[in-house]
Amino acid sequence: MSDTFQSAYQEEELRLRDTMEEIDRQYLRLVQIPVYTGHDFTEQVMEDTRELRRQRLKRALKEPYFGRLDFEEMGQPAPSALYVGKHGVDCEVELGQADAYPLVVDWRAPIASLFYSFSGGVDSVTFKAPEGAVEGHVHLKRNLVIRGQVLQRVVDTYNRSEGEGHVTDEFLVYRLGENKDNRLRDIVSTIQAEQDRIIRAPKNMALFIQGVAGSGKTTVALHRLAFLLYQYQEQIRAEKMMIFAPNRMFLDYISDVLPELGVGNIQQRTFPEWALEVTGLEHTVQLASPMEQIELWYGSLNNRPMLDNQASGRFKGSLAFKTYMDDQLTRMEREAVPVMDFSPWDGAVLSYDTISVWYHEEYRSYELAKRKERVVARIQRWIEMELKQERSKEQHKAKKKLSTPRMKAYMKKWAAFDALALYKTLFDPKRNVTQEAQTVIPAKLCKETSAYLKKNTVRNEDLAALLYLHIRLHGIPGDYRYDHIVIDEAQDFSPLQIAVLDGFARNHSFTILGDLSQGIHAYAGIHDWSEMRDLFELEATDYFALTRSYRSTMEIIHFANVVLERGVRTDMLAIPVFRSGQKVRIVSEPPEQQPDLLAQALAQFGSSGYNTIALLTRTAEEARALHARLSLHCSDRDIHLIDGNEQQYEGGISVLPIYLSKGLEFDAVLLMDADAAHYPSDPLDAKLLYVGCTRALHELWVLHDSAQPLSPLICTDDEETVVHGL
């Protein structure tokens, strides 16, 4: 250990001790203040403030900071050492002395942006503070690892005094080399400059992030939520933010990130469960399992439907379908009022013209169903006014009694403003429609959709349209207006979903992220980000491309890129961080030897200290069969099956189809059945195989039956990254 390093280490140990003592002192002082439980509003607010400080200090006690930045502001005689942590802490001073100063700077503070954006050099740098731009020089950037209040590692990534010209990646590579557990973790200590620009982007825009596998886009989006709550704390609330994720298991996987950042109460849902709730259909219809359609595409290669704009999911999620629904709503609006006068009893007549004016003109600003409610209420008031003119009690009673059934009969002639009922009519093959309408919905799709709708069953692809019809008929409830919406795996969303959700987001405030190269549900999702970006005004959007992958080793990324190039021919390739590891293994084995081979691989991974291992198959059926075989052959191991019904990701050893692994990552991956029959040279198959390869952090084994030819998507002649056999 060099004298310079020893001196830096001792300096940081002393600073850590002093910091911990101050945080502990503040925490104990707050804990000793009795919790206020009375009804005085002012005292309640003060107690809430104290509790927030208690929680922040408690979290800071575990790991007070992770970085140090020595910054010399222009005009100042010397640099100041700023310590950056997850939670800002001020050093309290005695009454009558100067204002409190930051003991730890919150990572979201303006000056902390320099810790992430600074890339080295002696030139001056600038950050934006509330009072304006602040210019100065960075003298030192230091990364620190503190665990259990113990300083474990000190790494200088830039030191001006030693002539360092650039920031090094040593600390980043160190953190990336750590093994994972069953939860996604925050990246506060290793946020990169390109990620920081996304996190700190303005609130009122639709932000699109194209990120390659392992670029940290999901984590960046979660950190962006934490930043927005810090930066716009007077304008937005956590409970008015929403995260849409692909499934419940993925939500469980990311569930620890926001609490680690001190953020709670943000809503996290899947789009299907949320859409059914908003429309009120959760107890009315049955949602078909999305696994059925996925298995249709990836389970039966010979029977796969054509992938084009007529695919059911693509069509139902298109703006062309939205236009068609608009036309049908316009027709419904035009024909809503029955062409007849209303008479509650003989001699009393409310003309069609009067009712029509009420509906089409006076209540035009309301949604269709709400207009009807207003008209019904007004007819009821008219009846009451007419009854008041009747002097005879007997006649009054008779007329009132007669008006009720006549009113019911009259209202039955009105259009039924029900989203599900209207949606069913759109696909009814027997409906009387124009030739133009018949060309809008393909006959095959019309017949197929009508068949399952008759059973009150809907698919995921129907939900955006049902939601759109519902809000056009009934409007958006106030409880469902959001300050910001995050959409993960957005390449699997449709333009219609985004168009509908825009009505729920204040000021078009979105973070929309995904990877077109992982668009394995392209039969329902998008093929290009312009399909979504074009929904917004140009100035209301921004686009970021994250091309650097922080997850996998260089060998794994290189191997996966070749798969993508061969099948998709894309330039959207990942650039790996300089982290080398084991070569990718292509293993050819006879079926009868597979159990022993897998047992050997699992034992080897276990001896390497890997906490998460995945065996990836093409389909759920193959996953279930493999899990059954492994459970018999490796009965001493706890092996989890993931086939689409799970609410949680348990970690350890998992067997699952590739399409359920998206968004997850594992220390080691065994990719099963990588033969030409399972993965022919097709864009969707290449994307599926690419997703499987890029789940691995440290090791990737690619297995195939020795009697079957290897997939043409896999390169076998690159000796730098691929080893054949064991």
From TrEMBL:
It comes from the Bacteria. ATP binds at residues 211-218. Residues 190-553 form the UvrD-like helicase ATP-binding domain. Keywords: ATP-binding, Helicase, Hydrolase, Nucleotide-binding. GO terms for molecular function: ATP binding. Pfam families: UvrD-helicase, UvrD_C_2. The keyword Metal-binding does not apply. Gene3D superfamilies: P-loop containing nucleotide triphosphate hydrolases. This is ATP-binding domain-containing protein.
